[in-house]
Design brief:
110 residues, alpha+beta, 3 helices, binds adenosine monophosphate, binds zinc ion
């Protein structure tokens, strides 16, 4: 069995507050939110990060992102972040996109 945290969430072995699920993707609320709305969107299959992302999975994730943005009323704006690798600040090595909204998000990031 995979030791990957997000594979376990995808398999239902660790609970999460789900906001979206389809055949290829899953989205759930971040346990340590950095904005009023902070959702993590993942592919169900294990990919380490953006460097392993194939075109088909990217398309599934984009479609899910649009559905979530609509369902969560992200109309005033939101941000997508994919921390990648050590310098990118990635801590969980299962590809995930942070979807952040609900407040003005600063720029540049820290
Ligand atoms: P990153 O630093 O980009 O790899 O992001 C990992 C994210 O996963 C962080 O924002 C954590 O708060 C979040 N996280 C870690 N464990 C869980 C969990 N069990 N459920 C939901 N989010 C989690
Ligand atoms: Zn995984």
């Amino acid at each position: 069995m995979s030791e990957c945290l997000f594979c376990k969430i995808a398999a239902g072995q660790i609970p999460a507050k789900l906001v979206h699920e389809d055949e290829h993707t899953l989205a759930f609320r971040d346990i340590n939110p950095q904005a009023p709305q902070h959702i993590l969107l993942i592919p169900k299959k294990h990919l380490e990060n953006m460097l392993g992302l194939d075109d088909a999975t990217a398309a599934h994730m984009l479609a899910a992102m649009r559905k979530i943005a609509e369902a969560e009323n992200f109309g005033r704006g939101f941000r997508v972040v994919a921390n990648t690798g050590e310098l990118g600040g990635q801590t969980v090595y299962h590809l995930h996109w942070h979807l952040l909204s609900g407040r003005h998000l600063g720029w540049p990031p820290g």
